[in-house]
Amino acid sequence: MNKRLLATCAGVTAIVLAVTGCAGKHTTNGAGASTGSSDTFSMTSSAACDAAASNDGGTLNYWTSTDPDVFQKEIQPFNAKYPGIKIKYTSLRPADMVQRIVAEVQARHPLDVDAIAGDLPSFAPLFDQKLITAVDWTKLGVPADIQFTLNGYTTIRTYREVLGLGYNTKLVQPSELPDTWAGLLDSKWSGQVIADPRGIYLSGLALGMGEQQSVDWFKNFLKLDKPLIIKGATASMQSIVSGQAKLTTSSHDAEAAEQQSDGAPVGIKYLDIVPTQDWYALIMKGAKHPEAAACFYSWWTGAEGQAQQLKYEFKSDKSAPDGLPAGAKVVAINDPDQAALATKVADEYAKLMGQ
Asked: Tens digits of per-residue pLDDT, 98-107?
């Protein structure tokens, strides 16, 4: 899976234990489940935007991990459409957001953030401690398929990165590619396929195969494919473009799209198990500007906001990407148990590679 998610998993466990004593079991009930509070934020998008523009200048204190310069480009249409709403942006990793919020709550200080976006395993302590606002996202016009319920609170997905098999389109024909991860176990790819030394990109396969089967698969992958060990999606893509390798197992759709935009001979094929990296948005409990947050998220998950995200970050929020094969199993790491499994398997893969 994506390195940002797995790199925070150990820290997430420590935070959960520190805040809650023992984190409870998380449930995922799908869109439309009841919230964890009867005090639900319920406004239409237009009402929220109107209220935000007249409430303390409509300032929105927003945290996520996008590069600040990129984010400012992305929100230019929002700024033009809602000049009365100002966004004060801070770029932070999800685990760092949680640490700051928890520290402020424990010190009984008012929060200096209204809304955040990141991965749900990192945000688990905020759900456990009910530090988020229950929101009627449907009333705000947010599509049902990007709503997700954890611990009784419904949140919304802002993007989904999808893992596939990246390949050099000049060196490999689509008809030559396997249809399954099991089909990738073939000596004809010996020395021509890339794996990350940390095991983080392929560890999501455990959610679809099961832990032991995924480890057995990886052992056979090392034996038959003898992969090139290259760290990072960017470096692996560069190796594909240069022809050093033909395939990479460290490729998400966003990375492939970025290379394609530069004219690189890169393609991506989704196999039978499709791990994803999902990013979700929250409005904090006690936020000073919930209307501004609601207005922004309504715009951000709409057509214009999503077009901006795709343009500048090459990230989409499609539940099923274009080219997804029939019967493919999409698996997402959206709770601490899933994150713990992926982290454990990534460590196993790294050990098998001698890391």
From this structure: 999 999 999 9
